[in-house]
Amino acid sequence: MTTSEFAIRVQGLGKKYTIGHQDKSEGYLSLRDSLTQGTRQLAQQAFNIISGRQHAPRTRNEDIWVLDDVSFDITPGEVVGIIGKNGAGKSTLLKVLTRITDLSRGRIEINGRVASLLEVGTGFHPELTGRENIYLNGSILGMSRAEIKKKFDTIVDFAGVEKFLDTPVKRYSSGMYVRLAFAVASHLDPEILLIDEVLAVGDMEFQKKCLGRMDEVAKDGRTVLFVSHSLPMVSSLCSSCILLDSGRVVAQGSTSDIVLRYQTGADVNSSKIDFGNKTNPPGDEYVTLDSAWVENSANAQTLEFSIFEPIRLCIRFRVNKTLSKSPLPNVHVTDSAGNYVFVASPHNWNEQTAIAPNEYTACCVIPAHLLNDGMFSVGIAVNHFQNGLSTAFFIQHALSFYVLDRIEQNPLRQESGWAGRIPGVIRPLLDWNIVGGR
Ligand SMILES: Nc1ncnc2c1ncn2[C@@H]1O[C@H](COP(=O)(O)OP(=O)(O)OP(=O)(O)O)[C@@H](O)[C@H]1O
């Protein structure tokens, strides 16, 4: 990639903390920390940090690599989620990208003006009023006074702090503070927006508003990096994800693949999920999942289907102990907006047949000309009846596929000259009977 082809390039990034030596960044408290803890706890934490007690149980002068050989490229306009367990290094990565914390090794290149929402005390000056802080932030981002003025009312409106505009922000409640911080970071035309979990704080309405605003920022072609533990938020907002574990990038790719891998530990690409070599596959003592996939009528795994093609969904599962009745595989198909399109299980299923331990593969076919074009996701499950009705496993959004309406393959659409999308979740071929003169 040439310089202008990426917004952020990180190469071999390492961040080392030497426990026992105060890092200069330790004086900062994250906005999330400050919001999720009471004032007393916060004061205690600040005291611990200042007095060096925060990591007291660790050996003095022990080196800990909290980010290790992290490399990735982010293209302009990408909205990327950073996910991973507690302590994986997500917040540290954002701090290093914003230079709040120094890196110990590697290279970072950033093309574009960055606004971030990470830290109390960065960007906002506590003694200045809300109004003054909006102008200060705008000028830090390189905007003229006139440009900031144009955005001013929208920011104040979004944050809902009209009455407190001339109050120093140190007097703001944490809710007001975060509302103003988010409004400023997301409205002052940053080219790159870095956001750490703050949206998890605050009421549902504010979260929804923030998500909406982040979506607008993304649609505007800005680059967004979003650290979060909320997988639904990441799924609804981010097109791709980076999964961190113990300071290393363990996977990077489409959000659905990475979120699923994080949740299940499986090797995933969207058209196949495979637990064949895993020690703890989903399931119970009777039935466990081996793999599941989407294939075409030539038995080739694929993500893309023409509207004219049937789609085969397959689940391979292992029966570990004899079952007195046959287990019941089922698929749950949802569209890209999350609407259930259908749930299907075998209608010719005979529950009375005993099933011996073995591997079984259940496939069903979605006929051609049923689904409209679009992206669909498939949940997979197997139920059995050993102790009443039990679900051995159910993995929502395990697989996905696209149905494409290729106009060049559709003579009717070519003739009609209509190239736009035909609305609807399904597009069945119905039998028509047209009679005249009735
Ligand atoms: N100033 C510091 N000194 C020493 N260790 C630190 C410091 N800041 C963070 N760490 C350690 O670095 C590791 C990564 O922390 P970080 O906050 O980046 O993780 P995270 O993925 O954001 O976690 P969480 O989801 O819990 O916020 C943790 O083990 C943490 O204890």
Termini gap: 67 Å
The major β-sheet equals: 6 strands, mixed
Total domain count: 2
Placed side by side, the strands forming the largest sheet appear as: 5-6-7-3-8-9
What coarse outline follows from CA principal-axis ratios?
globular
CATH topology of the largest domain: Rossmann fold
Bound molecules: adenosine-5'-triphosphate
Topology order in helix (H) and strand (E) letters? EHHEEHEEHHHEHEHEEHEEEEEEEEEEH
What's the gyration radius in Å? 26 Å
Total strands: the figure is 19
CATH superfamily of the largest domain: P-loop containing nucleotide triphosphate hydrolases
Which structural class is indicated by helix and strand composition? Answer: alpha/beta
Spans of at least 5 consecutive residues whose pLDDT stays below 50 are 23-59
The helix content is: 10-25%
Mean pLDDT: 83
Determine the strand fraction and express it as a percent band: 25-35%
CATH architecture of the largest domain: 3-Layer(aba) Sandwich
Counting H and I runs of at least 4 residues, what is the number of helices?
10
CATH level-1 class of the largest domain: Alpha Beta
Pfam family, one: Wzt_C
Organism: Herminiimonas contaminans
Family: Belongs to the ABC transporter superfamily.
Keywords: ATP-binding, Cell membrane, Membrane, Nucleotide-binding, Transport
